[in-house]
Amino acid sequence: IYQLIEDLAAKGACVIVSSSDPVELQGVCDRILIMMRGAIVGELSAAAVSVDDLVAATTGAASVEGLADAR
Fold first, then answer.
1. Any residues with CB less than 8 A from the CB of 9 and at least 6 apart, and which?
2. Contact 68, 42 (CB under 8 A)
3. What 3-state DSSP class applies to 48?
4. Which residues have a Cβ under 8 Å from the Cβ of 33 and sit 6 or more positions away?
5. CA distances from 12 to 5, 8, 9, 53 (A)
């Protein structure tokens, strides 16, 4: 599945991945949108955020804006 995602993205296709695994998201995504209670609360660059920061953002322990500004 990961090869298919990579091939589609290389051809310019938009690929939407839904996952609760931060390591998987970093490996597959360029951008990560954080959702809480059905709303997008932030956007992070997968290359610029650590797994710990991503977990903190998705659990509400850290501000997504603060993480994005720190990068």
1. 15, 30
2. yes
3. helix
4. 40, 42, 43
5. 11, 7, 5, 28
Any residues with CB less than 8 A from the CB of 8 and at least 6 apart, and which? 15
C-alpha–C-alpha distance, residues 5 and 2, integer Å = 5
Round to whole Å and give the CA distance between 63 and 9.
29
Q: Which residues pair with 39 in a beta bridge?
A: 36
What is the residue-level pLDDT of the chain in tens, covering all 71 positions? Answer: 999 999 999 999 999 999 989 999 999 999 999 888 899 888 999 988 899 988 888 887 777 766 655 44
Residue 41 near residue 26 (C-beta atoms within 8 A): no
Q: Does residue 47 sit in helix, strand or coil?
A: helix
